[in-house]
Amino acid sequence: MTDTQKPAAFTELVNLAARSLGAGVIAANDELFAEKENLLVAKPAEFRPHTFGHKGQIMDGWETRRRRGAGAEEPHPTDDDHDWAVVRLGVPGVIRGVIVDTAHFTGNYPETGSVEAASVPGNPSPEEVEAAEWTELVPRTALKGDTAHEFAVDVEQRFTHVRLNIWPDGGVARLRVHGEVVADPRDLDGLTFDLAAQEFGGVATGASDRYFSSPHNLNSLGRAAVMGEGWETRRRRNKDNDWVELDLVGEGEVLAVEIDTTHFVANCPGWASVSGRSAATGEWIELLPRTRLQPDTRHRYRVTPSEPVTAARLDVYPDGGIARLRLTGRLTEAGRAAHALRWLNLVPTVEAEQALTEAGLTVGEARTLAGARPLADAPAVRAAEAALQPADTPDGAETSRRRAAIWRLLGV
């Protein structure tokens, strides 16, 4: 893959289980040798031989004790005996692939493993998550030692938690869960927010160069702690410039731009500009003209929205590093509707029905509309609405109520 191609592999998608996005390991049945929290550490696993603690060699991963059978006559564990760890994703989304990495586990890696996922909205307890309905993403599969196992996933549903199962015991260094963020539209409704934010679904789709660090860092949560947490290109030796393109959360109006060069001192770009892709024409329109940048500085600019945009492009001249790019704005009605409809199509049936009843539909109406998913667009929603019972009253009150409820949730 060249630097200018858009990444296609699921490993180029957002790691939904990143600690920087708020992910956490909420439960594990055992972690005697090495703590479950190591599964989500951002940096690759390390191994330092002959570093022993009170429980043996210190391992940079999650490692359980050796399983034993029921007694002297049956010293071995059964085929069903296994260990598990449950991870709350930092942001809910559609999972496109997972990586189960057994780096540095050679004589103590699991024989097989599997991955499941569940959707449990809100802030559930570990017990509530355990009682949820789980969907198999990766079936029980043979594992190797000291290997990063990549498993593509093809399940069109939004999930909030994953569970890693290992048979019968052993150690896993890291777990990565890559996919597409699907934020709850009700959390964003009526707000101005960062339209490019990774936590809401913004994603870098292409870059001219990613030699020193990833363009996915540009829209990460929080401020960069070090230079390596931004996006930095190699030194350019021709007269071109470097750039990154990002898909926004949805169609929206950009009201302000922040270009943060924190930690980039001798390698800060000289200038930068920001463009947006017109929702109407698909052409790039100027949001921020080419503007002088200062090293190690947060630059903030108010912009006047000319028309709605669906994507953004940051151009830096001629090269260098940017810590963060923020595009504060608001979704248009069309952007909100498209975002909400995608979310409704991807949540489990019980969540869709609950959301529709909370918006104002009856239980029966919510069940019927949820059963009509996937709903491709506003006309499809209207067609499904027309099929709802009971029939309308002479004054049209039932139609008005149903349409108000659907508008409240979906904006269509």
From TrEMBL:
Domain Allantoicase: where?
22-181, 201-330
Q: Name one GO biological process term.
A: purine nucleobase metabolic process
Supply the SUPFAM superfamilies for this chain: Galactose-binding domain-like
A molecular function (GO) term: allantoicase activity
Pathway it belongs to? Nitrogen metabolism; (S)-allantoin degradation; (S)-ureidoglycolate from allantoate (aminidohydrolase route): step 1/1
UniProt keyword annotations, A-Z: Hydrolase, Purine metabolism
Its recorded reaction(s) are: allantoate + H2O = (S)-ureidoglycolate + urea
Domain of life the protein comes from? Bacteria
Q: Which Gene3D superfamilies match?
A: Galactose-binding domain-like
Task: Return the Pfam families for the record.
Answer: Allantoicase
Q: What is its EC number?
A: 3.5.3.4
Q: Which PANTHER family match?
A: ALLANTOICASE (PTHR12045), INACTIVE ALLANTOICASE-RELATED (PTHR12045:SF3)
Instruction: Report the family membership.
Output: Belongs to the allantoicase family.
Record's protein name = Probable allantoicase
